[in-house]
TrEMBL record, chain A:
Protein name in the entry: S-adenosyl-L-methionine-dependent methyltransferase
Signal peptide location: none
Family label: Belongs to the class I-like SAM-binding methyltransferase superfamily. BUD23/WBSCR22 family.
Cellular component terms per the entry's GO annotation: cytoplasm; nucleolus
From TrEMBL, chain B:
GO terms for MF: protein heterodimerization activity
Record PANTHER family: MULTIFUNCTIONAL METHYLTRANSFERASE SUBUNIT TRM112-LIKE PROTEIN, UPF0315 PROTEIN-RELATED
Pfam families with a match to the protein in the record: Trm112p
Gene Ontology terms describing biological process: rRNA (guanine-N7)-methylation; tRNA methylation
InterPro entries in UniProt: Trm112, Trm112-like
Family statement: Belongs to the TRM112 family.
SUPFAM superfamilies the UniProt entry points to: Trm112p-like
Organism: Rhodocollybia butyracea
Protein known as: Trm112p-domain-containing protein
Subunit description: Interacts with TRM9.
Length: 295, 123
């Protein structure tokens, strides 16, 4: 299936059903959560006082919940009314706004201590209508200039997004530079197809890197490796074969490959419970025991 | 769920509306009070960003007169408690925000303000 941002504008794509699906999908929740934590890490906020943050494209409040947990006071913007409704139902603490970020943000200068945005910018890279104010460069420019002024100096904005090619990254970073931002792109797990994540790490002023006096704006390092949940393709097959040859016992016969022991059963049951499956038997001391032979 | 802390940093962003576009006036508002965690450190760091007169005026529109007209030099506990109440516990649920300059209406329904502009207002 093609990418969601190519199918319809965000406010239509995330209708009532899609908004529910998006929020209830546990895999999606996990990915959003890990990206939010990573974005907060890249924000590099001072720990001394709780910050006032902007969540751009807050959606149903998946990232907002984490901001609540971490003790931040925040304001969220989104263009999809259905997503905001879900956020209201979930009772997040932040203020919610129905706003098109491509039209610019209406905040007084220097209001926010930082901004995060998870999986949003790619929506700005398609044109919703043919009007000249709808072209991606125009909307990006509006967004970045108004964001730059809404942030205090020094501060940072971390925006995770899914660019479809390098040209899009160049377009976005180019316009962000024009708007006055420093910084650049941080790519986590660059060698992996699935776990690869692109963060646009933007600095206002010094960006708090090494004190206000230093003018070197060091972009943080991206995470290396292939991501935890990812199997390394190619390598895995080879490993498996070696392990299985070692598993042969003294007679040269193979042991059964699947060992269904107590740990394995407990793990599976835990997984089913997490997925919300009903009638998973409870754990007891008898779990995973062999029956006595009947004769 | 517009709290007054957010209202205080909100300005009109219609095309060409660059001066006198703050604060947005409230009209026909319904208020809801919701308790929030008291956090004096946050208030102290946020205090310099507040437009004091705008906050006092808005609080009056929301029928709360606990704040002094001038921002006090000394931050005692009672003042911080009042400030906390005004900034973080007063939620605007329904009503309209009107730009004092261009008279653009931003309707608030179900606690969510609609900040969308028409195409000719974007610029």
């Amino acid at each position: 299936m093609s990418r969601p941002e190519l199918q319809a504008p965000a406010e239509f794509y995330y209708g009532d059903t899609e908004a529910k699906k998006y929020t209830q999908n546990t895999r999606n929740q996990q990915i959003q959560a890990s990206m939010t934590y990573r974005a907060l890490e890249l924000l590099n906020l001072p720990t001394s006082s709780p910050a006032f943050l902007l969540d751009i494209g807050c959606g149903s409040g998946l990232s907002g919940e984490i901001l609540d947990d971490e003790g931040y006071i925040w304001t969220g913007l989104d263009i999809a009314p259905s997503m905001l409704e879900v956020a209201l139902e979930r009772e997040v603490d932040g203020d919610l706004f129905l706003q098109d970020i491509g039209q610019g943000l209406g905040f007084r200068p220097g209001s926010f201590d930082g901004a995060i945005s998870i999986s949003v910018l790619q929506w700005l890279l398609t044109a919703p209508t043919s009007h000249h104010t709808s072209s991606p460069p125009f909307r990006l420019k509006k967004f970045f200039t108004s964001l730059h002024s809404a942030l205090k100096n020094p501060s940072r904005a971390v925006l995770q997004f899914y660019p479809s090619d390098d040209d899009q990254i160049q377009l976005v970073t180019g316009i962000a530079r024009q708007a006055g931002f420093g910084g650049g792109v941080v790519v986590d797990y660059p060698n992996s197809n699935k776990a690869r994540k692109v963060f646009l790490c933007l600095f206002v002023g010094g960006g708090m890197s090494g004190g206000p006096s230093s003018d070197s704006q060091q972009v943080p390092q991206g995470l290396q490796g292939d991501g935890d949940e990812l199997e390394e393709e190619g390598k895995v097959k080879f490993e498996k074969r070696r392990v299985s040859t070692r598993d042969r016992n003294a007679n040269g016969k193979r042991k059964s490959q699947k060992v269904i022991d107590r740990d394995w059963i407990l793990k599976k049951k835990e997984l089913y419970r997490k997925r919300g499956k009903e009638s998973v038997p409870r754990d007891s001391k008898f779990t995973g025991r062999k029956r006595k032979p009947t004769f | 769920m517009v709290r007054l802390i957010t209202h205080n940093i909100l300005a009109c962003h219609v095309k060409g509306c660059t001066s006198n576009n703050f604060p947005l006036q409230l009209q026909g508002v319904q208020i809801e009070l919701r308790e929030a965690e008291f956090n004096p450190e946050f208030l102290k760091t946020f205090l310099p960003k507040i437009e004091w007169k705008a906050l006092v005026d808005t609080a009056k529109e929301a029928r709360d007169t606990s704040l002094p007209l001038e921002q006090p030099e000394m931050l005692d506990d009672e003042f911080l408690k009042n400030l906390h109440h005004v900034l973080l516990e007063i939620h605007i649920e329904e009503g309209t925000m009107i730009c004092p300059n261009c008279k653009h209406n931003y309707p608030i329904s179900n606690g969510i303000p609609n900040m969308l502009l028409a195409e000719h207002e974007v610029g």
